[in-house]
Amino acid sequence: MTIKLPSPDEPLRIGTRGSPLALAQAHETARRLGAAFDLPDAAFEVVVIRTTGDDRAMIAADRPLKEIGNKGLFTREIEQQLSSGGIDIAVHSMKDMPTVQPEGLVLDCYLPREDPRDAFISPGGGAITDLAHGTVVGTSSLRRKAQLLNRRPDLTVVEFRGNVQTRLKKLQDGVAAATFLAMAGLRRMNMDGTIPMTAIDPNDMLPAVAQGAIGIERRMDDDRTAQMLAAIHDGDTDLRLSAERSFLATLDGSCETPIAGLAELDGDSLRLRGEILSPDGAESFAGEISGAASDGAALGRQLATELLGKAGDDFFAWKG
Ligand SMILES: NCc1[nH]cc(CCC(=O)O)c1CC(=O)O
Questions:
Q1: ipTM, 2 decimals?
Q2: What's 221-245 look like in SS3?
Q3: Can you give the residue ranges of the Porphobilinogen deaminase N-terminal domain (predicted)?
Q4: Structural domain total, the chain
């Protein structure tokens, strides 16, 4: 079946948030689609959509996100535009996406995954182990906070929100001595090499589920878009995310739950590592599982069940 490709007259509309990282991801998507179908830049239109999360984050920039809103805060308006036909695709950081999509939308196209590791950013250089007793570290990620306090309970963690540029500015202003950012974001904005940072070994700090992966969402009934996205979909990323996201889904995790998970491929086999922590980092349960790469979803469920068993029934009680 031949499809009617987008053109400068009828461009494919790509919905995204307006942060520099989100825009870089949207343009990467346009570039890959353009290359796959030999289309000019003008066949794509990047549509910036302001979300409730962006608005509320402006109002209460120093309050933890979990106090401001709930799941979907940064995606709701984008998904509404997608459902109503205002845009044709939505580009997302997969680590920010819930494991279930709204009725009528599908999220099954992934670009090749970037480096999934966290980066430790400290103008003073050095590593986590070099930080002096009581040093202030900024992060808004419950996972990073819990993992850090688990290793270094003596450190002080302060809320550090905003986009990558805002957080780096706070470091410069001395609000904290160090912070964490995803390597993937820094790479996609060509910022690696421009700031003092060290990639953290996943053995020391396991990244967020799906970190470094970009997902592209579409309407379920939009066959043209489905065919276009199939051409840029990355199968290895899919196998890895299947395992990680089934691990997350079984734990019933959200961005408010300290959960980490990383799947890696070795030929036809897959190794999944996972960790769950209490928010204060005092308790941590970690494990790993290996099996056939095609069994990722089952491996994810199995590892999650194992960690839930280790942690005990009361572990998630604080979730409220
Ligand atoms: N929650 C914000 C967010 N969502 C995705 C990324 C980084 C890019 C990625 O993981 O693909 C970031 C910023 C960060 O953690 O540094």
A1: 0.95
A2: CCHHHHHHHHCCCCHHHHHHHHHHH
A3: 12-226
A4: 3
Does any domain span residue 193?
yes
Q: Is the CB of 185 under 6 A from ligand 1?
A: yes
Query: What digits encode the pLDDT tens for the residues 84-107?
Result: 999 999 999 999 999 999 999 999
Query: Out of 96, 115, 118, 222, which one is annotated catalytic?
Result: 96
Full residue range of the structural domain in which residue 194 is found: 118-199
Look up 154 and say whether it is catalytic: no
With a pLDDT cut of 90, the percent of the chain lying above it is: 78
Q: Does residue 71 lie within any of the structural domains?
A: yes
The answer to whether position 29 is within a domain reads yes
**Ligand 1 near 96 CB (within 6 A):** yes
> Is 207 close to ligand 1, i.e. is its CB under 6 Å away?
no
Tell me the sheet residues that pair with 93. 214
Atom of ligand 1 nearest to the CA of 210: 10
